[in-house]
Amino acid sequence: MRYRADDSDVTRDSQAVSDAFAALGDETRVAILEAFVEARRGDPQDPALSFSELRERAGVEDSGRFNYHLGKLRPRFLEEGDDGYELTYAGREVVGAILSGMPDPDLVRGPEPLDDDCPICGDGLRGEYVDGDVTVECEGEHTMIVATLPPAAAADRTLPEIVALTARRLYSQLELVTAGVCHICSGPLEREVEAAADDGEVSDFAYWTQCERCGETTSSIPTVAILHDPAFVSLLHDHGIDVRERLPWTIPGLLKAETNRTGEDPPRYEMVVTVNDEVMTVTLDERGDVLATEITSPE
Questions:
Q1: Residue 243, SS3?
Q2: DSSP secondary structure letters along 156-196
Q3: Domain-by-domain residue ranges, the chain?
Q4: Considering only the top CATH level, what class is 7-100?
Q5: What is the pLDDT of residues 46-73, one digit of tens each?
Q6: Which among 125, 143, 267, 292 could bridge 283 via Cys, Cβ 3.0 to 4.6 Å?
């Protein structure tokens, strides 16, 4: 069953989001939130700040004006305890988002060639980082990665390092996504194995998700559904392969798996993945959940 918010849910959520953005629409309030970061750098064991300490760190001389802005941040982004003010979960996330976009939101790396060739056509791969987006594709326009990486993470890294870090982040995000959890807002996901554009080279199916809360969507090859499956991870391990240390296009079987629809009511899919000389057959339901696996080896 898929959840659908009724009108009251939408109105209430929209108002809450509007209020949250309005609370952050002032330089003084952002400075108050950033003051906690500076304090934490100096003493990570004591995250609380008193009214006077916080006002001094935020650089606001007028006590009444400071108190006004402080009130706009409570209780969503700040909470007051016995030892002073502290960031709430939402406050910590907002500060992290602000810092992740620094120091240069317009950072560009590449395009430049990478060391690997395209596993589909054999052409060389090239990577590019533009405005937080990472793309890896070949001259034949087969796309390996389209993902994001905060400018703060890319600032001091070369393009190959950016690509490697992006892959690590992507694996973590996919672990959430395939479990039905949005990697952006932690909301519930609709997930579906669906027919993909037929290019005759990669797969006739795609693994599609959409968050019911924030609307974030993903579309990937269907084998991402088994990327963290214990049987697949174990099979790779038996062949000396650690998924965490591999870029996606270098993981055996990941891009060239064969997927077929085997059932209609309910929908069922069979995925065949070959790792060196062993064949893993996986049965998926309509959401991409693994129902069964079987590994066969040559005699």
A1: helix
A2: TS-HHHHHHHHHHHHHHHHHHHTTTB-TTT--BEEEEEEE-
A3: 7-100, 103-177, 224-296
A4: mainly alpha
A5: 678 889 989 998 888 888 999 999 888 9
A6: 292
